[in-house]
Write a structure and sequence with these properties.
By secondary structure, the chain is α+β, with helices and mostly antiparallel strands. The chain has helices spanning 16-30, 38-55, 98-113, 119-166, 172-199, 218-227, 236-260, 298-363, 369-403, and strands spanning 35-36, 70-80, 83-95, 209-210, 264-271, 283-289. The longest helix has 66 residues, at 298-363.
């Protein structure tokens, strides 16, 4: 007994926000036509994604920063013997340089460019679910007629065996086997109906009919994946992230170097208070200078340089990993197609054998109708097996589109659309 394969990739429940979005899509798309094909379905999905992405705003204007000319103000006072006439006062200021202020401003602007949230991450899941949903709908559509045919054959087989049992022309084990096959089929149909309801878009309630004549074929998948070069794949999100991190590290390094080159550390003025001591100054001025061989932030400079080198190494590692992942995924698609084609040849041979057996039974006028029903059931099971094998190819193809980042590459493109 052959059973319907169901996808394990879809979530058990669709997130409520997806359902809301799909409802909006359904109103805009399905209110105009009773049939929707692959191109129309994903086109509206893409337009909906583009609309939401374009409406997302950056709130960076809420933050402002102006690099200060004076970094620190300091006021000190001290006394001798708690005599106010001997009270000393000091004011110290620590200025910045133009290079420090420019580095601080660039660092702040880099902080603003960091994404506070990633609206595209939600859209990625939305697009992936739309692809998986369409493929599941296609194979459900392909199987439903075959399952009905199989049910008819099994019902006929049960009726024949019951009659044969009455006249003692059948084995009871045949009846039990046919009964179990029919029970398994009914359970599979029920499971399929429940899953269709669970994963169905709200559009299915409006009586819209899906058509799949423009869906990419296995042969087209094979040609596309075979010609694809895994080394051409680059993760644009990773590139943006690396560039932002590299810029941030460079700005921090510029700031550290600017601070290291700063000569004037502080300037101060002190007031000794009212007194009549001729050997004691009432007002004095002082400055603090940094000597050129001072290495106070030398360790910080080296740490930032090491981080920048490590960032380059990590980028190369991530690119190599992406290449290996895409190569593996590409191989799995082609391997699933190879298995599909080999099984297709075997099934064609079995179907030809069944046709020959049917012809022999017809020519010999066999009186046992269960033989013909058995062959009909086997032919239907071969077709179901063919569809399940093809579904494996399409699921591997969806994995390949995700791993290669093609599915969510901007501008969005429909990779389920046939070129014919």
């Amino acid at each position: 007994m052959y059973s319907l394969q169901t996808s394990s990739k879809l979530p058990n429940l669709i997130n409520s926000i997806y359902i809301l979005v799909f409802t909006v899509v359904s109103i805009s798309l399905f209110g105009q036509s009773n049939t929707v094909n692959t191109g129309e379905f994903l086109q509206v999905i893409f337009e909906d994604v583009d609309t939401r992405l374009s409406s997302s705003t950056n709130q960076s204007g809420e933050y402002t920063f102006k690099a200060p000319i004076i970094e620190e103000y300091e006021f000190r006072t001290e006394t001798n013997d708690f005599d106010l006439d001997k009270q000393d006062y000091l004011i110290r200021v620590s200025p910045t340089t133009k290079a420090i202020r420019e580095a601080q401003q660039r660092l702040f602007e880099g902080y603003l460019s960091q994404p506070k949230d990633d609206p595209f991450s939600l859209e990625l899941r939305f697009i992936e679910d739309a692809y998986e949903y369409w493929i599941d709908e296609y194979f459900s559509f392909e199987l439903q007629d075959l399952l009905e045919e199989q049910k008819t054959v099994l019902d006929d087989k049960m009726s024949v065996i019951k009659k044969q049992l009455i006249i003692g022309d059948a084995d009871f084990s045949d009846f039990v086997k046919a009964q179990n096959d029919l029970k398994d089929l009914n359970l599979n149909q029920l499971q399929n109906q429940q899953e269709n309801k669970m994963y169905a878009f709200p559009s299915s309630l409006s009586g819209v009919e899906y058509t799949f004549e423009d869906l990419i074929s296995v042969e087209e998948i094979k040609a596309f994946v075979t010609a694809f070069d895994p080394s051409s794949v680059e993760d644009p999100n990773r590139l943006v992230s690396d560039n932002l991190k590299r810029t941030e590290l460079q700005n921090e390094l510029d700031l550290e170097e600017a601070e290291a080159k700063q000569i004037l550390r502080f300037a101060e003025i002190s007031y000794g208070g009212p007194h009549s001591d001729p050997f004691r100054e009432k007002v004095s001025v002082g400055v603090g200078l940094r000597l050129p061989w001072d290495g106070g932030n030398r360790l910080d400079l080296q740490e930032l340089k090491i981080e920048m080198d490590n960032l380059e190494t990590e980028a190369l590692f991530d690119q190599d990993k992406l290449f290996l992942d895409v190569s593996r995924s590409r191989f799995e698609v082609l391997e699933s197609i190879r298995v599909y084609e080999e099984q297709l040849s075997l099934r064609e041979a079995m179907k030809e054998s069944n046709r020959e057996l049917k012809q022999i039974l017809n020519e010999t006028n066999s009186s046992n109708p269960t033989f013909i029903l058995e062959l009909n059931q086997q032919s239907i099971e071969l077709e179901i097996d063919k569809i399940n094998s093809a579904k494996d190819v399409y699921e591997e193809y969806l994995d390949f589109l995700e791993d290669s980042l093609l599915m969510t590459q901007m501008p969005l493109k429909n990779y389920l659309l046939s070129s014919n």
